[in-house]
Amino acid sequence: QFIDLASNGQGFVYVTNFSDTTLSVQVNYVDLLTGQTRTLVKGARGNNIYFPRFSPSGQRMLYQVALPFPSEKVKLVVYDFKTNTRKVIFQGNIDIQEPSWSPDDSYIAFIVRENGVVSSRIFGRKNRGNLWLIDSNSGKMEQQTFIDGLVFHPTWAPDSKWIAFMTHDGSIGFTSEGTGKIWKIGEYSKSWPWFTSFYIEP
After folding, report:
1. Phi, psi of 27 (to 5 degrees)
2. Mean pLDDT across the chain, nearest whole number?
3. In the chain, what's the furthest Cα-to-Cα distance?
4. Once rounded to an integer, what is the mean pLDDT over residues 14-43?
């Protein structure tokens, strides 16, 4: 979750956390053609940076900032390589996992984890995680799934119109951006192996 390769293969970004007295963090870009490294982002003292993700076009990069206690807020920030500018598209108290750009750079899908919010007679309190979308320009957010369980591995169709996902019980589903509809296309039994990954053909 601390490194990502550009889609053109010409560079990668990585996060460096310093354990010295500065307690600082930064995001660096390595140009594989020239071998040069430059710092894109310098975080404030005590902040943590996660999930640097190039957009498919390679023109922008998403990253997540976790603010230190007692704030405990997170920020989603988009860095523009053309203008060398940053834009905060979200800030709030949620646990964001598995951010994934749409192929057309328009949206970012991610999982919002809620710990201990679902009651179970057998397991007691358990976690819930649902799929959300955020507009990479406006920051408008929209929840896509509404289940009392966990959603994993959001995977975009090449045309950016569909998102596939997996659930805690081994099911695979699809949802279409903006419709709120979910199609469940498969459910595995309780025996092993469960689905672990999938791929959408162009």
Report:
1. -110, 125
2. 81
3. 59
4. 86
Helices first, then strands: H and E counts in the chain? 0, 16
Q: Is this prediction's pTM over 0.90?
A: no
pLDDT tens for each residue of 123-150: 444 678 899 999 999 999 999 888 888 8
Instruction: Please give the single-letter amino acid code of residue 148.
Output: D
Q: Tell me which residue has tokens 């320009």.
A: 137
Torsion over CA of 168, 170, 172 and 175, rounded to 10 degrees? -10
CA angle 180–7–65, rounded 5-degree value: 65
What is the rounded CA–CA span in Å between residue 167 and residue 150? 5
Distance CA 69, CA 152 (A): 28
What stretches of 81-180 adopt beta strand conformation (E)?
85-92, 95-101, 107-120, 124-135, 141-143, 151-156, 162-167, 172-176
pLDDT, tens digit (0-9, with 9 covering 90-100), for 98-125: 999 999 999 999 999 886 444 444 444 4
Helix (H) or strand (E) holding 75: strand 74-80
Q: How far apart are CA 1 and CA 34, in angstroms?
A: 25
Q: Residue 188: its pLDDT value, please? A: 44
Determine the pLDDT at residue 44: 80
Encoded tokens for 7: 């889609």
Label residue 55 exposed, middle or buried (CB < 10 Å: 0-12, 13-18, 19+).
Answer: buried
